[in-house]
Amino acid sequence: MHWLKKIFKRSPEWITEEERLKIIEQSSKQVSRGVFFATIIIITSFLPVFMLTGQEGKLFHPLAYTKTFIMIMDAFLVITLAPVLISFFMKGKFRPDNANPVNRVLEKIYEPVIRGVLKWRKTTIAINVIALVITIPLLRSLGSEFMPPLDEQSILFMPVTLPDVSNAEVKRILQVQDKIIKSVPEVDKVLGKAGRASTATDNSPISMIETIIMLKPKAKWRKGITKKDIIDELDARLQIPGVVNGWTQPIINRINMLATGIRTDVGVKVYGQDLDTISVVSERVKKALEGTTGIADLYVEPVTGGKYLSIDVRREELSRYGLNVDDVNQTVETALGGAPIGTTIEGRQRFPISVRLAQEYRNSIEQIKRIPVISPGFGEVPLSAVADVKFEDGPPMITSDNAMLRGAVLFNVRGRDLGSTVNEAIGKMSHAKGLLPKGYYLEWSGQYENLIRGQQTLMWIAPVVLVIIFFSLYFAFHSIREAFLSLITVPFALIGGAYMIYFWGVNLSVAVAVGFIALFGIAVETGIVMVIYLNDAMQQLVKEKGNSSATITREDLRQAVINGAAKRLRPKLMTVCVSLFGLVPVLWATSVGTDLMQPIVLPMIGGVLTSSTHILLVTPLIFLLTKEYELRKYGKLEIHEIHH
Fold first, then answer.
1. CA-closest candidate to residue 121, choices 484, 623, 549
2. pTM of the model
3. pLDDT-derived band of residue 59, with 50, 70 and 90 as boundaries?
4. By three-state DSSP, how is residue 244 classified?
5. Most buried in the list 84, 568, 615, 634, measured by CB within 10 Å?
C-alpha cells in the first residue's frame, strides 16, 4: 500500500495560489489594455464601410455589422472573461517558451536576423522606404472599377434592332439568333423575348430583344475556353445587319436599369429640349467614342425613327357623305383596336370579349384605306374617301430625367478596366469640337456613376479614420511616440497589399478598398502587441540597471530590445497566422462569388505578410532608435507603465 500512497500523494505547489492569481492579474493588465484598444481600432477602421451608400453599401454593410458586433463582444470578453478562464485552466507547472520545439526553431532563425537588422540600421530602413515608394507607381498603374464583375454563370444577350421593326421580323430574328446561340457547345439552354412583359417596370420596346443564355457546368466546356471566349465567339456568329449586339448578365443588368436607368456598364445621357437635336448630338457623341480601347457594344438609344399610323379626317368630304368625325373614329377604333361586345365567365374568372378586323384586313395601308365606313345616304364608303391614311415618323419612346428630355449613348467595357476607359472617353469628348449646342449638356451614368460616388466617400472618410486610430493608440499608450510606432505599420501593410493585387491582376474597386480597410486594423493590432512586449523589456532593464544613462549602455538597450522582440515571438506569430489561415483558402476557391471575395482577401493576405515582417524587424529597430535618443537627450528612458 505504500507505493499506492506515493502515487496519489500530491507534490507541494511550486507557487502559492495567491502568487499565481497575482501573476495572472499582472499579465492580464499588461496585455488586455493593448488588446482592448486594438479591438476598438479594428472597429474604427471599419467606419468607412458604414459610410458607403447605394449598391456597394447594401453589399458590404452586413460584413461591417457582423465584424463590428463580434469585435465589441471580443473587447468586452478580453477584459472580463479571459482572465477568469486563465485562472481556472492555467494551473500546475509550465514549460518556458523555448521548451516548445517549434518556438525554439523560430527563435533560432529570428534572433540572428533581428541582430543583423539592428546592426545594419540604415540599410534596413532604406529597403523599407524604397519598397514603399515603389508601391506609388504600382498603384497608379492599376485600373479602377466599381465592383469586380461577379460571374453569374449565365449570359444576357441584349441586341437592339431598328425602332420601326415589325412583329414578324423581330420574331424571325429571335428564332435565327436562338438557333445560332444553341449551336455553341457550352450553351445549355437559351430563351429569348422581344417587347415588354406585362409589368410597369419593364419598358422595353419591341425593337429590344432579351435572350437569357444558360451555360453548361465548366467541366463540360472545351479545354482552355473561358466565358469571355464564349461571348466573343457568340458575338462573331451573331453579326446580323441592322442589329447592334449587347452582352451583359441578367442580375447586374436589372440592378443597373433600376438604379441608373442605363442597361449597359456605362451610358452618356444627353439632355435637351428637342428630340431631333438630341438624336444629332447622340450621334456626335457616338462618333467621338468610336475606336476607344475597351468600349464594346456601342450604340445610340433611338429617340427618333418610330413609325406611327396617322389617319387625318377630311371634314369637307365628311359633309358630302352625311358623316361626322365621330363616325370615322368609331369605325377606326372598332376595326383596328377592337370593340368590347361582352364578357365571358369561367368559374371565378371574367374575360372581356372584343371584336376587330382579321389580321389580313388591317396589315397594310392599302387594306386600311379600304375599311368601309357606313354612310346614311351612300351606304358603304371606303375610309380613303373621307381620310388620309399614311405612316409618319416620330419618337419610338420618349425618355425623360429630372423633367428634361434625354437620349443616351450606351456601351459596355470589355478587356479593360472601367475607370481608365471612361477617363479616356471623357478626354476624347472634351477635345471634340462643336459637340453640344447651347442649352444641351451631358451626364455620365451607369457603373461609372457608382464608381465616382464610392471613391468620393472613401477619400474623405479615410483620413478621419486614421486620426481616430491615432488617438485610440495614444489613449492605449499615453505616448504620442508609441502611438506613432504602432501606426507606422499601416503604410508598410500597404506594400504587400499593393504587390499582391498588382501581380494577381486585380483592378482597384470598392471591394479592394474594403480589403485594405480590414488590413489596417489587423496591422495596427499586431503592432500594438509588439510595442507592449518591447515596453515590457524596457521595464525589466530599468529594474535591473536603474533608469539612468550612466548605468544603461547602448549594448544593454540593444540586448533588451532583442529579448523583447524574440522572447515573445509566439503571440505575435499567432496573431499573424490566425489572420492568414482564415484567408488563404479563399484563393483556391472556385465557386460562385469568389471573384468578388478574392479582391477583398488579396490585399489582406499580402498586407499581413509585409506588415508582420515590418513589425518583427523594423518596429524593434525604430523602438531602439527612439530609446537611444531618449537616453541621449534626457539621460533616462521614458517608461510607460500599464495602468487601469
1. 623
2. 0.72
3. confident
4. strand
5. 615
